[in-house]
Amino acid sequence: MSTTPANHPSAQPAAPAAQAPTETWSSSARETSQNGGVAAPPKEKRDQQTAKAKKSSKLPSWIKDNLTSARSWRIVARCWVATWANFVLMIPGPSLRVLGQAAFFGCMVTLMIPPCYPFFLFFIAFSLLAIGALVGWAWGCAAAAAASRARSVEVLQAATQRVRSSAASSTNPEAYVALAVFKGEFLDVRSTAVFGVFLMLACYFVAVLQVKLPKLKIGSIFVLILVDIMATYGPLFPYARYTLGEIFMIPVGCSLAICLASQIFIFPETLAHAWQLGFVDMLGTNRDLIRMHESALADVSQLYDPLTHLDPHARGVQPSSDLLRRHRQAEDDAAKIATSLLADVKANRSALSEQNENLDGQITFLGMEFYRSYVSSHAMKSAFRKTRTVSLQLTLLNSFWRLIAREFGLADPNTYDENWDPTKAEQGYLIDGEHGTYAQPTKDRLEPIRLHETHTIHRARRDLFTSEAAQQVPMSRMLNILKGVATPSLDAAGNSIQALQDYFDANLSWRRKQPIDQVIHQLHETKTRLESARQGLFNDKRLELLQPYADHFRVLHPDLDLKEHFLQTKGSIQSFRAGGRPLHVCLVYVTTLLDALDSILRLHEEVLNAADRAGSKKRIWAPKHLGRLFAILSSDKHGSADGLDRFGSGDGQFEREEAIDGEYREDRAGSSSSSNSSSSNLSGHFDGESDLDSDDGETRAATSRSSRPTDEEKNTGSSVSSKKAKRERKQRFYARDPDALPPTNIGHRIGRGVAATYYFVTGPTGLYALRMCVATFAVWITAVLPHTADFVYQHRGLWALIMAQTAFALSGGELIATFVMRIAGTVAGLLYGAALWYVSTGNGRGNAYGIAATTAVGFVPLVFVRVWAPKMLLLPSIMMNVSFVLIMGYSWIDTHLQVVANSGVGIGLAWKRALLVIIGMTVALIVMVFPRPVSSRSLLRKNMAKVTRQLNDLFADVMEAWIARNRIHAQETERSGFANQVAVDEEGAGSSSEAIDKLWHEREPVIRARFMAIAVAIASYPMQIGLATMDFHIRGRWPSERYVEIAAIHATILESLGAIVSSVRAFDQLPTPAEGDAIKRVTASSETRMSQNDWQVLLSSSTSLLDPQHLAEICTMFDLLSKALKNGERLNHASFLLLENHFKYAHRNGNIERFLRKRAAVERGESEQNTTDGEDVLSWGVLLDPMYLRYTTARMASLTLVAQLDKFKAIVQDLVGESSLRGFDMLKEQYDERSYRVAAAINNL
């Protein structure tokens, strides 16, 4: 007999579970489908019609949706009233004289922070603005006082005498003195130097604050604005002018009063109400994704042609080449549909990521206000956390569509290079290995990376396609069956999410569209239907996927019993594993769908329990947790939805370089351990971390199990032990440094402090702040020089200074992007403002009624765009609004108020304003570029290296949990050999299950938090790649195609790790089939019923993931790729494909397992022929076992993991190069071929 050699594809993951053929369970499945499926309500049909109507529109969705939303127009009305009122306030002469020459600033501030936010968030935002302005004013006053003391009395007296003598001979002495002040007649070098020092200190501090605490960005901007005013105009005056800040503070105060009044009296809205509206939209986005999957399944199911079936009675007939070609064409069409779906899913997940970011930024403020609702803020937070899990589980459904799209795997025609020849050099190169060292110039787009098709991979692919053809079960047929299997569950999931939306809609509505009791009753009904659909899928519907293989067996063996003889030979098992790809690909979808249904069910139960506790009457909830407000605002967490970190360049989507390189730089100077830094990366992703205090006792009892174990231990610790712990000296750990051991004396600790300061000053944040100081000084110095002071003041040079400070970015790509957006927004606003000015005034000085009426109409589109523009258009929309107000405001002020500097009106003012913006942006650009720009491409590469390292950490966490879980079982087995059998069954099993539960209770929150953190990082890749594309490309074109491939690989690896941990976790929570289920009916008589531990052993040996050698190779590969990406260092060419080793180790482990079983049987005195346990036998009952779903999914995920790592390595090698070893490929191929022949010869002995 011939056996499978080490590198034979039979070691490939087994095909997923099969389907039962009997009519009994088929009819039962149809009944379950009818009972569990829910007809689409009319509302969903209207949603579908609305979606079709939206598709035909060419307007962006953010315009189209808000134009048809009544709530959107209510918010626009509130903001419009506040904006127009602030503008109208400066039109009358008395109020204009009070507001001064910066009267338009109140309207500008209203457009920068419009009252579109809920009252609580708006009050916080404006409070930060006011506090920042006051701090800047105070700092400016301190600078004025210090400069007044430093001013030379002799120089001041001489300048005063000189100006007085000249003013005495002028016709208007007061005007002459005012002109003399701004011409720099009273400038003093020492006083100016003091102002400059204060300005530089404030600028450095604000720059650091913007990087470290992005939520305080808006406040820090106004600190700079007020300091700029005091430091730019202060040196010009002969004495300290502490009231210069009133120029901006009076308009800011008026703006605050008007905005607060509009918030209170014009469609007021609480944060809880606004947050729930966003939450409903987030639920809708997830429901849209479910509908996408339904539509895609319907599309791929139509590709199946029943006429392509072989005649069931034609025994032994092989499919013709034409039939195989048609099957292959159907699979290609399915791949196109899957590719299109993945693109739609990517857009859907991008929208969901932004919604999640918005809600996550607001959720920390929930419960800090008075609000009226059925449910408390704690229940809202719990529902949000469950919804994030639902979103992640729905994202894992992509793994199935990636298999259909053939993005990777043995069946992918584009993954492997079939024409690769190890004896020849690569195409275009003369010497073998030269391609890994040097790259050829090309203007064409880079082709996707293709792996070498080695002899091992070639045999695996050949046997795969041959076995699939022999099985005569095409992918199109399985997809047609899958559609019927999954549709009822998808319908039930969609209806469940719709019911949740209806409940929150009822909570938001002031007028009940339907009684709340009816809404809660609908929640109960949809929950029951969802449970029924989930149970039907788990017990009955999934078995339909086995029907084609059962039919094929009956055709070949009509006289044999299916349950007794199916897959009872080694050859048939190998053929089934190699050719059952269509089956186990479909079972991957079933498994991930079951996980998604479970997460939706948990979310549904969470909301339903809260609804049942709340009853049918709303209550008013009092504010809580206000003490956390300062900690929230002082956190360095990005992505708040309160608008506090989105002005200027504050939301560049790039992680700071020092955060990426922390373990290489600052950690060596500081004392934080790697574990602490690692845990800090996961902060914000633990379930229950945002609000451990409940709003009532019932909620506390219901949700206490979701809190973090560490917090529970801290809360339950006794006061005596805590006091003792305080008295004890804490042991400090330091990150390992190859150049220095941990400090042992005070000198070492001082040295570490000095090193940390040096690293900070010379690091990215320090250089960023230093560059801002240089740009500030370059523009500011022109305003305090005697020869240029008058020119700068006459042409409003202060705005060039403000623009230079706010135009800074952390990277080159972000700088260019903001440069383009600022210029575009400025030009659009200036042209729009000039046009409206001439419409309202013509060539005159302006008419109060005309300009009021014109701006009343002109503000409508500006306010609409400012309020509802997406994040990418937020900066140009702000610049457009600010430029519009500057044109209209300065034009009106210069014609109706006596001012020293008159900039003109209309278009004459517009080009001066545009020039100021260009000057400020140019200064920022020059300072950012020289001496060395911060590369967005380098930041992206290092960020991807960090995510690779985090994936390695996640993989290690999963493997650690798996190993620890198996160790508990092994210890229990060892104890059972010495204990009484009854005690083992009753007590030992209980202790083992309790230990495993405790293990998962400790490990699962960390794994989930790490998974979410990586998912968030991967979701930011498209934005980062877009910014990196806009970076300076002076050395050559940036290979964006390769980084897009890396982004896809990271997403796929994350999905694979999620599938592995879900499958391993599921083995410890095997659900018991209900009485009368098809599983029990079919498998009750089966003698092959595998225990949970058997599945674990089988999975461990067949996937090779727990093979120490393979495990070490995977971890090493992650580490090498991370370091190569970060440092740009070459990789070594001499290495094996992980996929090849996966096959070899799986085959070796299988042989070892069989040998040990046979030896154990001989020791027990049994015949070796009866030792049919293990992976050599796949009976019909084993295929029907529900755990076979998990087993197959884990095997598929392990295959995907190693295949993606192979592709990842090839991409990194293409980017950084490789150290060649000429002749290695040919030597390896010869060695593998020799090993294959020897193994085949030994098996034939």
Q: Characteristics of this structure?
A:
two-stranded parallel ribbon; 1245 residues; 49 helices; two-stranded antiparallel ribbon; elongated; mainly alpha; transmembrane helix; single chain; disordered N terminus; 1% strand
Task: Describe what this molecule looks like in 3D.
This protein is an all-alpha fold and 1245 residues long. Helix content is 68%, strand content 1%. The chain has 49 helices and six strands. The strands form three sheets. It has a two-stranded antiparallel sheet with strand order 1-4. It has a two-stranded parallel sheet with strand order 2-3. Strands 5-6 form a two-stranded parallel sheet. Helix 7 (119-150) runs antiparallel to helix 10 and helix 8 (153-168) packs across helix 9. The protein is elongated, with a radius of gyration of 35 Å. The protein starts with 22 loop residues before the first helix and ends with a helix. The model is unreliable at 1-46, 312-316, 638-652, 663-677, 688-720, 980-989, 1070-1089 and 1171-1176 (pLDDT under 50). Residues 59-547 form the Putative ER transporter 6TM N-terminal domain. InterPro entries: ArAE_2_N, BRE4-related_DUF2421, Memb_transporter_dom.
